Amino acid sequence: MSSQIEINSNLVKYLALNGYRPDPIIDALVKETKSLGAVAQMQIAPEQGQFLEIIVKLFKAKQCLEVGRFTGLSSLCIARGLSQDGRIIAIDNSDEFLPLAKKYWKKAGVQHKIESVIGQGVDVMQSYIDRQFFFDLIFIDADKNNYPNYYELSLQLLPTNGLMMIDNMLWGGNVADISDINQQTETIRKLNNNILKDNRVEFSLLPLADGISFIRKK
Ligand SMILES: C[S@@+](CC[C@H](N)C(=O)[O-])C[C@H]1O[C@@H](n2cnc3c(N)ncnc32)[C@H](O)[C@@H]1O
Questions:
Q1: Does residue 33 have its Cβ closer than 6 Å to ligand 1?
Q2: Residue ranges in the chain whose pLDDT is less than 50
Q3: E strands, 75-118, in order
Q4: Which residue from 110, 104, 107, 70 is spatially nearest to 90, judged by alpha carbons?
Q5: 201: which strand partners?
Q6: Which of 34, 42, 143, 163 is the most exposed place for a label (fewest CB within 10 A)?
Q7: Distance of CA 101 to the CA centre of its chain
Q8: Pocket test for ligand 1, best of 31, 69, 104 (most atoms within 8 A of CB)
Q9: Statement: the pTM of the whole predicted model exceeds 0.85
Q10: Domains of the chain with bracketed CATH
Q11: From ligand 1's centre to the CA of 10, what distance in Å?
Q12: Which of 52, 103, 123, 141 to mutate to test the pocket of ligand 1 (most atoms within 8 A of CB)?
């Protein structure tokens, strides 16, 4: 039986060169986001973006929802994976980086597939439940303390076979450090454990970048 290999710094360098195909638009968005300073660490890894695009294509998703847009890399990649009649609604509680996101959505020619909604993730998701508006794919990448809420709301917004992907589920490796009892770490650790035991779903916890939980609603 093969087991999970350890990702050391050598392997990280290897993955940077061989696990992501350079893309001029993604690379420019990453560069401009980096120039914003410390907030740039919120951006998904480009290799996660390319993974999202492939999944959306394979899954033939039509209606996608994202919680946590920031400078728009994940929405751009999801939109790239969508067919011309596919849509993604990108929620964020701040409009601060929306102009930057829109600039790159336009450069990538996907702006017509992305609807931006400014609001609290929980409230906006609840409003879709109230209006009986459903999604076939949901990507969660916002405030970690609300992750359990986003998980439960997503289960109400997805049909059977719907797909949920949650970023940062390894939380810099801190989930495995039992001495780390920081609230965000505890929340993610508990959610991983709940997903493990949740008979409503099938899942795979993938160690891609900061970890993506890949969840199918049964
Ligand atoms: C990790 S970043 C998202 C990164 C993005 N997916 C990307 O590809 O670059 C998290 C985002 O969630 C937003 N956020 C934080 N709390 C939120 C909330 N309660 N509701 C909606 N968005 C929230 C932040 O404003 C931030 O832009």
A1: no
A2: none
A3: 87-92, 114-118
A4: 70
A5: 217
A6: 34
A7: 15
A8: 69
A9: yes
A10: 24-217 (3.40.50.150)
A11: 30
A12: 141
